Amino acid sequence: MLTLGFSFQPRPFRSSKGGVFLGYGCAISTDSEKRIVETIRMSNLQKWTNATVEEIAYQFNPQLRGWINYYGKFGKHNLGRIVRRFHFHLMKWALNRYKSFKTSKKKAYEWLRKLRDEKPKLFYHWQAGFKQM
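User: That's the sequence. What structure does it adopt?
Assistant: Structure tokens below.
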């Protein structure tokens, strides 16, 4: 069943006693997730080479805040794929912006990790606890 961008289906849950059981839960729907990923993709973030990382944060933070506050209410961990996709586009932007990375995705991701550690409040999803890259 699909309601307001959420899907309700059987999902594994952890019990308070440490076991796992199958419950009927709610999480972001596949269609909503695809729409968000398409929004990120259509922004052509990797081509914003004249923008600073602060300008990118200023542009995307309202959307990130909205998505996390709305869809993160039930099953925040399900937003991980969206956050990873956003990090991928940030990495592509860094590769295009800073030629010193010389197409090294590893160096670009390292730079993003360092930036996250130096400015943990720059992007809203970092403040919300999404740290994986």
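The chain has one domain: 29-127.
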